[in-house]
Amino acid sequence: MRKFILIGSTMVSLLLAGGCATPGYSASERSQLIQRDFDYNGGQMIDDWDSFWLLRPASHLTTWSVQ
Questions:
Q1: How confident is the model at residue 22 (pLDDT cuts 50, 70, 90)?
Q2: Radius of gyration, CA atoms only, the chain
Q3: Distance (Å, whole) CA 37 – CA 41
Q4: Are 9 and 2 in contact (CB under 8 A)?
């Protein structure tokens, strides 16, 4: 019984102290990262769609910044 109380109190203290709740990025930084990813993937999807329907000639060159 004492072991369960010790484990339970340790878990509660870790949750209250923050534990894993401290993010590496703030909420605004994280939303900017997600938005940048969606924009990039959306552009790639449009390129794939144009390539599928042969609206743009095939090329090995890219219009995207790949630095």
A1: low
A2: 24
A3: 6
A4: no
Report the alpha-carbon distance of residue 49 to residue 60 in Å, rounded: 16
State both tokens at 17: 């102290």
Reported residue count of the chain is 67
- DSSP annotation of 6: H
What six digits make up the tokens of 13? 């203290």
> Residue 20: what residue type?
C
* CA dihedral for 53, 55, 60, 65, sign (positive or negative): negative
- The CA distance from 38 to 21, in Å, is 25
Nearest to 25 by CA among 12, 14, 36: 36
pLDDT tens per residue, range 24-58: 888 888 899 999 999 989 988 988 888 888 887 77
